[in-house]
Write a structure and sequence with these properties.
heterodimer; A: six-stranded antiparallel β-sheet; four-stranded antiparallel β-sheet; 13 helices; B: alpha/beta; seven-stranded mixed β-sheet
């Protein structure tokens, strides 16, 4: 679950990490009002769940309430990285002498969590990491989740120097680690972590991604969920217990199993079609799930065919067939509906469907080819 | 032969009295697995079907001599249940559960390793040595004993490939589902090492997907250390960046974890990557057409 900058900054503040004063606004008058409290001089920042805000003109420094109003108006009308801007953060300006990068993240390859630091902050960390790998220092979080003082000093010292600033940096690092661990983050990034002209450390921008698997443990975080992160179809699918990602093709697909669902999308493309979505209906063969899945797919007006691929292990193919038959009675399916069923009770399923005039393939390639051909022929059934 | 499990493995089922636990315990018994006990706190002394239930793993291990455990425990309690298995003397722990927070898994993987046990999963279908033992939820009847090892991050996609292998006469030594999460107990390389040493395994199929760099690391390992035939399938070539595709570990982050990178890593070292699951048997049999497709793509 991705948090907006203003939500991430608020969490940092809760953990005692110095952040610029600021508040989110949804309208230009609101933004102007907040700017007034900062004496007019502040920064208006688009709140979107994608990068590239600066380049897109979504971050503007202003020096009056009026300018804040105008900037907010412009930014709230923008779409950045495919996301319409729905909020801005109005924050006090902080004059920085230097910019660092600090973050906590899961290192999959090493099966551990790490604190990551670079003396070259403020820019794209991935670029830095690939161009200058030795500018990135990684300190593993140890078994109890803490970060040892010595390895941390070694990582930060070369860029920050010794003395009070290093002490402040250590303190920030430890607080970041606590937030990362206690709130089950997948990623916690502060970029830049700035050294101000008067020697303070301030987290000027923050990005947090929470582990979806941990949300049940954190109802306070679940409340922060931003509808902007998902399309309506993705939200509804989630509510129905389905896993869904929209794409821009015209062949809808529904499959049991994430890997097989991805492979099915890939096969559609392989045979010349364009998948419209990823949809994993999971292991349950409940008819309601089949109905819900078809309904969500059909909301997409671009759909010219639907391909359903079920490999029944525990999932019984005849249960799936009953779900399909029920769906056909409940919803009008105006496009060709191609089914591939194999596995437990597949012959029973094929017979049930044949009695309803539906052919269920057993060969996957044939089924995909049929779906691609159907979509290509205008889609009307 | 086989790796990790065989006809001697003695298996307990944690969560045996739940809906999934009881169903799969019976299914495993039907497939010839020696399911010797189950664990559900508070239900010790009862029977699940014909299987004795115990209150703790330690008790179950003591009374049955079990060396293997399979977990059907909800995500909330799964990490603790895995630790309980390792503490209780289980040597092979198989966790089916999806939805465990990754930071809990980081600590749990470390813990299991410190107890010298092996963890498969989580978020996996388990493993099967056809004809000998099944510790998982895969449909036994599509498998056949044979000499092909299978290592996969997926569930039903694995069955798709296994089905193709069986249909073409290529039986399997052991099929291992390593799981779809970003941090799992056992990965490609550890299993490749085991398959390299297994006298009856002549070739291996790797089924990967987007997310992480494990396939790329496996390719580097294969280049230097693996002597047997390999065929690969990578799913997610049409997945968009930045979106989790079902599995918690199936996500392209920035430029890392793309399907293209994985496909290239294998083709660059001469390992064929199928464009379609049904091409895998032909690649293993060394059929020239399939091999060529595997190296260049686009059949």
């Amino acid at each position: 679950m991705k948090l907006f900058e203003y939500q991430s900054v608020k969490l940092l503040a809760q953990y005692g990490i110095p952040v610029p004063r600021g508040e989110a606004a949804e309208t230009p008058p609101e933004a102007a009002g907040i700017a007034a409290r900062f004496g007019g001089r502040c920064v208006i920042k688009a709140q979107v769940l994608s990068g590239g805000r600066g380049k897109a003109g979504g971050i503007r420094v202003v020096s009056s309430e009026k300018e804040a109003f105008v900037a907010a108006e412009k930014i709230l009308a923008m779409t950045i990285g495919g996301y319409p801007v729905t909020k801005v953060l109005v924050a006090e300006l902080v004059d920085l002498r230097r910019e660092f990068y600090a973050g906590c993240a899961v290192n999959r390859a090493m099966k551990r969590a790490e604190f990551i630091f670079s003396g070259a902050g403020g820019i794209d960390i991935e670029e830095t990491a690939s161009a200058y790998p030795d500018k990135i220092r990684r300190v593993p979080l140890d078994a109890s989740g803490g970060i040892g003082r010595l390895p941390l000093e070694e990582a930060l010292g070369p860029s920050i120097g010794r003395g009070m600033l290093l002490d402040k940096a250590l303190s920030v690092a430890w607080k970041m680690e606590r937030l990362f661990s206690e709130k089950d983050c997948l990623l916690l990034e502060v970029n830049p972590l700035g050294e101000t002209v008067d020697g303070r450390l301030v987290a000027v921008d923050a990005k947090i991604i929470i582990d979806d698997n941990a949300l049940a443990k954190h109802p306070e975080l679940e409340r922060l969920r931003n509808p902007e992160e998902y399309s309506r179809d993705e939200m509804d699918a989630r509510a129905a217990g389905l896993s869904f990602v929209g794409l821009d093709g015209d062949i809808g697909c529904m499959v049991n199993g994430a890997g097989l669902a991805m492979a099915t999308m890939d096969l559609i493309k392989h045979f010349g079609g364009r998948p419209a979505n990823f949809l994993d209906i999971g292991g349950s063969s409940s008819p309601q799930k089949v109905v819900d899945a078809i309904a969500i797919l059909l909301r997409n007006r671009n759909i010219r065919a639907i391909l359903m691929n079920i490999f029944g292990g525990i999932t019984r193919c005849d249960d799936v067939a009953k779900g399909v038959i029920l769906a056909k009675r409940m919803i009008d399916i105006p496009v060709p509906f191609v089914i591939r069923l194999i596995g437990t009770n597949d012959e029973i399923a094929r017979k049930l469907l044949a009695d309803e005039g539906i052919t269920a393939y057993s060969d996957l390639n044939e089924a995909v080819r049929s779906a691609v051909a159907s979509a290509g022929m205008g889609g009307a059934s | 032969m086989s790796i990790l499990i065989d006809e001697h493995s003695r298996v307990i089922v944690q969560g045996i009295t739940g809906r999934d636990g009881s169903f799969h315990a019976a299914a495993m018994l039907g497939d010839g697995t020696r399911v010797v006990g189950g664990v559900t706190p508070g239900k010790g002394g009862t029977l699940s079907g014909s299987v004795p239930v115990f209150n703790t793993v330690a008790e179950a291990v003591e009374r049955t001599g079990a060396d293997t455990s399979i977990l059907f425990v909800p995500a909330k309690n799964a990490a603790a249940a895995i630790r309980e298995a390792a503490d209780g003397g289980v040597k092979l722990v198989v966790c089916i559960t999806e939805g465990i927070p990754v930071q809990e898994m980081i600590a749990t993987v470390r813990y299991v390793k410190s107890k010298n046990a092996v963890l498969i999963g989580p978020n996996c279908p388990g493993l099967i040595s056809p004809g000998k033992c099944k510790v998982g939820i895969m449909p036994g009847r599509i498998h056949r004993p044979g000499s092909i090892g299978v290592i996969s991050r997926s569930g039903t996609l694995t069955y798709e490939v296994v089905y193709a292998l069986t249909e073409s006469g290529l039986g399997q030594s052991t099929c291992v589902g390593i799981g779809g999460d970003p941090v799992v107990g056992t990965g490609f390389i550890e299993l490749l090492e085991l398959f390299e040493k297994d006298g009856d395994t002549e070739g291996v199929v790797l089924i990967g997907e987007i997310g992480g760099e494990e396939e790329e690391e496996a390719a580097r390992y294969i280049e230097s250390y693996f002597s047997k035939k390999v065929a690969v399938f990578i799913s997610g070539r049409t997945a968009p960046a930045g979106k989790k595709m079902g599995h918690a570990g199936a996500i392209i982050s920035g430029s890392s974890g793309t399907a293209e990178s994985k496909v290239r890593a294998f083709r660059d070292i001469g390992v064929p990557v199928a464009d379609r699951p049904d091409q895998i048997p032909g690649i293993l049999k060394g059929e020239e057409a399939e091999r060529r497709i595997g190296m260049q793509g686009l059949a």
